[in-house]
From TrEMBL:
Protein name: Ribosomal-protein-alanine N-acetyltransferase
Species assigned in the record: Aestuariispira insulae
The keyword Transferase appears for this protein: yes
Lineage top rank: taxon: Bacteria
NCBIfam families assigned to the protein according to its UniProt record, in alphabetical order: rimI
UniProt xrefs under PANTHER family: N-ALPHA-ACETYLTRANSFERASE (PTHR42919), N-ALPHA-ACETYLTRANSFERASE 50 (PTHR42919:SF8)
Ranges of residues in domain N-acetyltransferase: 9-155
Listed transmembrane segments: none
An example molecular function term from Gene Ontology annotations: N-acetyltransferase activity
Keywords on record: Acyltransferase, Transferase
InterPro entries hit by this protein: AcTrfase_RimI/Ard1 (IPR006464), Acyl_CoA_acyltransferase (IPR016181), GNAT_dom (IPR000182), N-term/lysine_N-AcTrnsfr (IPR051556)
Length: 160
């Protein structure tokens, strides 16, 4: 049995009271922190929803998404650096797909070309590159990185 199969990951709706937890995970996961108030405001916005992933009751990942008509966009997606490569991201993404397929035909996201972990996760989940934004992200070392725009078709019941 793989270590992924042994890890019980639960995903629940991210509520406003969990925004401080999401903010802390974000700060550990990315170079630049995202202010708690900005995450809270986003979550209050039209069509926005989120998930928090836990292992043994401990929050270890979260995502924020926005539903607009028949599309869902993943706005952010993060797993605690100490709990990576254990299937938490995959489980959370499967849950995003399971929820999105009820109302949407397409799932979109943007990801840096310098992010092999996220690219690996999204490609394995059936996302395809549909566009590129040149020099879209500025990294901590000031370098500029392209963003890939990726789409996952949900039209056939969420299957790839
Ligand atoms: C991207 C991220 C969410 C992946 O989360 P995770 O829980 O470690 O991913 P999983 O363990 O579920 O991995 C699922 C699959 O994704 C791919 N993957 C994950 N990490 C990878 C890595 N470091 N290199 C290559 N592929 C990777 C693999 O296909 C993996 O399957 P496998 O372990 O069976 O080979 C995590 O690395 C993260 O939070 N990164 C920082 C934040 C970020 O970049 N978010 C995405 C912004 S668009």
């Amino acid at each position: 049995m793989s270590r992924v199969a042994k890890l019980a990951v639960t995903c629940e709706a991210l509520d406003r009271g969990q925004v401080p937890i999401a903010t802390a995970i974000y700060a550990r996961a990315f170079d630049e922190p995202w202010p708690e108030a900005a995450i809270a405001d986003l979550l209050k916005g039209a069509g926005c929803w989120g998930l928090i992933a836990s292992v043994g009751g401990e929050p270890v990942g979260f995502t924020l998404c926005r539903s607009v008509l028949d599309e869902v966009e993943i706005l952010t997606f993060a797993v605690d650096p100490e709990r990576r490569r254990l299937g938490i991201g995959r489980t959370m993404l499967e849950e995003v797909i399971r929820i999105s397929v009820k109302s949407a035909d397409s799932l979109y996201l943007e990801v840096g070309t310098d992010n092999p972990a996220a690219l690996g996760l999204y490609l394995a989940a059936g996302f395809k590159e549909i566009g590129r934004r040149k020099n879209y992200y500025r990294r901590a070392d000031r370098s500029l990185v392209d963003a890939l725009i990726m789409r996952r078709d949900l039209a056939i019941g969420g299957q790839q």
